[in-house]
Amino acid sequence: MGCCNRSCGLIAGIAIGAALALLGGILFPVGDNLIVESVLEEAVIQNGTPTYENWLTQGGGTLRQFWFFDVQNAREVVEEGATPVVVEKGPYSYWTRYLPKMTVKFNPNDTVSYSILNEAVFEPLYSSGTEMDVISTLNLAVAGSYSIVPKYMHYFLEKMIKSSNSSLFQRRTVRELLWGYRDPMLKTKVGLFSPYNYTFDGPYNIFTGKDDVTKVGTIDKWRRSRTLDFWNDTYCNMINGTDGSNFAPYVDATKPLYFFSSDICRSVSASYERSLELKGIPVYRFTLLASTLASPLENPDNHCYCRDLETTKNCSMAGVLDISSCQKGQPIYISLPHFLHGSPSLLESVKGLKPILDEHDTYLQVEPMTGITLGFSKKIQVNMMYGPSKVITVLKKVNSSTIFPLVWMNESAELDDESATMLKMALVDSITMLDVIRKLLLGVGLFIFALCLILYIVVRCKGKRIV
Questions:
Q1: Per-residue pLDDT tens for 154-185?
Q2: In a domain, 303, yes or no
Q3: In-domain check, residue 182
Q4: C-alpha angle 258/252/247, rounded to 5°?
Q5: pLDDT value of position 459
Q6: Same domain assignment for residues 375 and 427
Q7: Taking a C-beta distance cutoff of 8 angstroms, is the pair 249, 45 a contact?
Q8: Looking at the structure, do residues 371 and 275 belong to the same domain, yes or no?
Q9: Is this structure's pTM higher than 0.85?
């Protein structure tokens, strides 16, 4: 009787072990499917999803930091034709885009429209000085007028420069240079980012992903148009990808991510660089390739971004982008900081520049399952051009055209600790727990099954010998 009870107990153990192992095995495909369904559902931009909350507002806001290029030999450049020598000064930091997206409206065609309020608040904690620090830099009015005014009108420009006691360089405060000052020559407000406060970027119209999750975040329209009108070319006027805050779930590291930046008036792509962890959450780091601002000779796709044959040396110059067509005619050239990936001539025309890849590249840190951008660093340098003139006194000693660096900025944001903890619990910890449970069930089940099976065989053998 005891042997029978022992055999029955072992048979029950075998059954329980098999059931646990089977349940653990089933949880592998079933659990993965549940995770996929949950991620796809929560990746949609709609009320109540983690993607919507992250999309609506960037945690603690975006920090925009500025580094100016302070000219050390302004007099020698004007009077002797010396090469400008600059020293980097900064950062001067501002909180921007810390408010939720404005005028959010969900539309019937699987899109949502919104605008972004531009506002900058100075942050002394992350700044090396105050907004009252004085910078010696290029005179925006003189350089800008030189670029716009044809040579036959240089006589009139010379009179304006002299009557206003202006020169090629000037000394202005950080606040004046960034947000505007009344220029004595132009008799109007001039500034690198003027006007900025209380202006809007957009409106944007993007897909929510409700009908097709692969299109989530993709821009349908910007400023009510599906294309740009800056470049006089169908290809360059395309609006590709998202605004960079999120992408379709289950990011493929072998494929580039496309996003549109209104700051540079064009779409760009970023390619996978490496995997890392951000506050305990695995992310993919995507960076801009050197080919993004390469000359059309190296990257034919950039042919339609070349606008000025003289300044770009017949489109052979790499590293700069003329965005005057989308800046109301202001002669602005965009590049990466310190002319990173730019032609050697750019670094030769101004002394003191030191491009460093790890410090001056642009990157996105994307959580690969949800496609949410958890951190980013977008770096842009603002430049203007000046050149020689036989009429304008302050330009008579200049030997050749120079694309001069004014300031570079790093616009960055990172998932705050509270949001990181919530996302880690909802995503990473849940997946880890599921993985532990199914492995535990499978392992324990197989152990119980094997142990009970062996003991059952032993008991059966002993029973036969007794008989």
A1: 999 999 999 999 999 999 999 999 999 999 99
A2: yes
A3: yes
A4: 45
A5: 72
A6: no
A7: no
A8: yes
A9: yes
432 and 410 assigned to the same domain: no
Judge residue 310's burial from the number of C-beta atoms within 10 Å of its C-beta, 0-12 exposed, 13-18 middle, 19 or more buried: exposed
Whether residue 430 sits in one domain with residue 336: no
- Kindly provide the residue ranges of all beta strands, DSSP E only, lying in 188-263, ordered along the sequence: 188-190, 199-207, 219-222, 257-261
Same domain, residue pair 342 and 434: no
50 lies in a domain? no
Q: Which residue's structure tokens are 């406060």?
A: 197
CB atoms within 10 A of CB 321: 21
Pair (453, 339) in one structural domain = no
Which residues span the domain enclosing 32? 2-40+423-466
Domain count, the chain: 2
Quote the tokens at residue 414. Answer: 């990172």
* The residue to which tokens 């350089």 are assigned: 143
Residue 52 belongs to some domain of the structure = no
The amino acid at 84: P
- Report the Cα 240 to chain-centroid distance in Å: 14
Tell me: pLDDT of 247 over 90. yes
Q: Quick one: CA torsion of 346, 400, 150, 178, rounded to 10 degrees?
A: 40
Residues 29 and 142 occupy one common structural domain: no
- What is the token pair recorded at 387? 């050149």
> Do 133 and 158 belong to one domain?
yes
**Cα dihedral value 122, 128, 130, 133, nearest 10:** -130
Q: How far apart are CA 29 and CA 52, in angstroms?
A: 28
Nearest C-alpha neighbor of 371 from the set 260, 265, 241, 273: 241
Residue 444 clears pLDDT 90, i.e. is over it: no
Beta bridge partners of 219: 206
The answer to whether residue 442 scores a pLDDT higher than 70 is: no
Of 372, 399, 415, the position where a domain reaches its end is: 415
H or E element, residue 283: strand 281-288
Please tell me whether residue 378 adopts helix, strand or coil conformation: strand
Here the tokens at position 90 are: 């900064």
- Structure token pair of residue 164: 């206003």
Q: Tell me the sheet residues that pair with 117.
A: 200
- Cα separation, 1 vs 3, whole angstroms: 5
